[in-house]
Amino acid sequence: MEFDPSSPGQTFIFHAADNPEGARAGSRAERVAARLQRRFDDTSPRCPDGEPAWLCSGLIMRATANYPFTPNPNNPIASFSYLRKDAGTVNMFKHQGIILKPTPDLMERMACLYPMDADSWATHGRIAGHYYCNTPLLSPHDEAHGDYSSCHAAGIAAQGLSGKEMSSRFHAKYSSDRDAQCSFSVRDPNQFYAGILATVYNKVYFGWLDWNELILKPWKSEADVPEIEAFFYFKGDSGAKSLATSYVGKYKRLTGRDVPALAVDFPHDRIEFEK
Q1: Considering only CA atoms, which of 83, 122, 141, 106 is closest in space to residue 264?
Q2: What is the largest CA-CA distance in the chain?
Q3: pLDDT, tens digit, 9 for 90 and up, residues 88-103
Q4: N or C: which terminus of the chain carries fewer CB neighbours within 10 A?
C-alpha cells in the first residue's frame, strides 16, 4: 500500500502490481485496507470493553529505513507512532514502514506514549531500563505491572480526570518542550486518550514534525518481530514505494504470511484498494 498526502478522502491505497501474490492477494488487501480505514476513522476514547483505544482503533506505525524487521541493536526501545483521524498527524520521520496488528499479546511490548516526538535518539535523562518512559525525578506509574509512564508522577494524570482534562494539563505544563515532557500510560484508557488529544497540538508547535512517539520494548531478532498487518509508503514517493514493496517478499520468506504494501494519505483521511 501507499501513503498519499494529497489525495482527498483516502489514506491507504492498494496497488495490485506491488503485491506479487496476484488476484487473491488483491481481494485480501482490499479487506485489509477497509479494516485499517475503519480503525483510522474510529475516534472512540476507549474500546467497547473498556480497554485502551489502541487495541481497537488507530494505527500503530513505525517509519523504517532499509530493513524494517529489527530495531537498532544499540537502542533500548523501538519507536512507533500512533495515528488516527483525531490525532491530526500527517507526516512521519520516514515515508515507508510497518503497521502492527493490535493483538492482545502486544500489550506486553507496549511501554508508554509521548504526545510529542520524544527525540529518543538522545536519553534526556530518561531511564533506559524503563524504556525511556520516565526519569529519576518522575517515577513509573505501576512498574510491577509494566506501566512505565510518568505523567502520573508529573501531576498531569490522575484517577477521575478525563482525557481532555489531562491533555489540557499536559500542554499547560510542557507547551512545546519535547525533551521534558512526561509520558502517558498505554494501559490506562483515559491516559492513552489524553495522549491522542495532546498530539493534536503538534501541528501548531512544530509544523512538519507533528507525530507522537509510542514506545515499545525492542525485539532482538527477526523471529521475535510483532505481527505486521501491512506495510505502507507515502503515495507519490517512488523510493518509499520500492522499499515498501520489497518488504512484502521479505516478510513472506521470514514468516510465511502474505502482508500487503499500502499507499497512505493522512491529510485526507483515506484508505483505499486500488486495482
Answers
A1: 83
A2: 56
A3: 999 998 999 999 999 9
A4: C
pTM passes above 0.85: yes
Rounded to whole angstroms, the Cα distance separating 256 from 196 reads 34
* Grid cell digits, residue 187: 494501559
What grid cell was written down for 153?
508522577
d(CA 109, CA 218): 8
Tell the residue number behind the cell numbers 512544530, with chain if given: 206
Average pLDDT over residues 209-220: 92
Distance in angstroms (rounded) separating the CA atoms of residues 188 and 254: 34
- Give the chain's end-to-end CA distance (angstroms, integer): 11
Strand partners, 228: 100
Q: C-alpha cell of 260?
A: 500487503
Q: DSSP letters of the chain?
A: -EE-SSSTT-SEEEEGGG-TT-HHHHHHHHHHHHHHHHHHH---SB-TTS-BGGGTSSEEEEE-SS--SS--TT-SSEEEEEE-GGG-----SSSEEEEE---GGGGGGEEEEESS---TTS-TT--GGGTTS-BTTB--SBGGGTB---TTTTTS--TT--HHHHHHHHHHHHTT-TTT---B-SSSHHHHHHHHHHHTTHHHHHTT----EEEE----SGGGPPPEEEEEEETT-HHHHHHHHHHHHHHHHHHS----EEEEBGGGTB-EEE-
Q: What length does the chain have?
A: 275
Residue 137: CB atoms within 10 A of its CB come to 9
How many CA atoms does the CB half-sphere of 198 hold within 13 Å?
36
Give buried/exposed letters for 148-164 (b at 16+ CB in 10 A, else e). bbbbbbbebbeeebebe
pLDDT (0 to 100) of residue 65: 79
Residue 77: all three cell numbers together? 526501545
